[in-house]
Amino acid sequence: MNRVVHFEIAAEQPDRATKFYSDIFGWQINKWEGPMPYWLIKTGEQGETGIDGAIFERKENWPTIVNTIEVASVDDFNEKIKKAGGEVVTPKDAIPGVGYMSYCRDTEGNIFGIMQNDPNAK
Predict the structure, then answer these.
(1) Total Cβ atoms within 10 A of residue 41
(2) R_g of the chain computed on alpha carbons
C-alpha cells in the first residue's frame, strides 16, 4: 500500500517557523545541506508512530502543508494521476542520494507529493 511518508510546511521565514515548531513540540529541526533551502524535521524516534517532515520557503500560489506519498515508480504514478483526472505540477526530479519526487494536484485542487526511494538517484 502507498502511505504518507513525509510532510512539508511552507514558511515565509523558515527560521521563525523552525523556532516555533521546535519550541512548541520539541521537534529536532536542522538545515539540510542539499541543493535548495530546506529544513528537515525529526518528530520522534525511529519505531514510534508518526512521520518526519520538513520546512521549506513558501512559493507563490503554493499550499501551506504538503503530504508526500511513497510510490514504487514516480513515472507510473504520474501517468495514473493524469488518467484519473489529476495533474502533474512538477516533473519527476532527482533528489541526489534519496530518490525521485514529483508534485501533483488532485481532482479537488490539492497539491501532494509522490516519492520513489532510490539511493542511487543523481
Answers:
(1) 22
(2) 15
Strand, helix or coil for residue 43: coil
Angle at 20 between CA 18 and CA 26, to 5 degrees: 85
Q: Which three cell numbers stand for residue 112?
A: 501532494
Answer yes or no: are the C-beta atoms of 89 and 111 closer than 8 Å: yes
Q: Are 58 and 14 in contact (CB under 8 A)?
A: no
pLDDT (tens digit per residue) in 53-107: 999 998 887 778 999 999 999 999 999 999 999 999 999 999 999 999 999 999 9
CB 64 within 8 A of CB 56: no
> Which amino acid, one-letter code, is at 9?
I
Ramachandran bin of 50, using left for φ above 0, alpha for ψ from -120 to 50, beta for the remaining angles: left
Mean pLDDT (the chain) is 94
pTM, whole model, 2 decimals? 0.81
Which alpha helices (H) appear in the chain, and where do they start and end? 14-25, 74-83
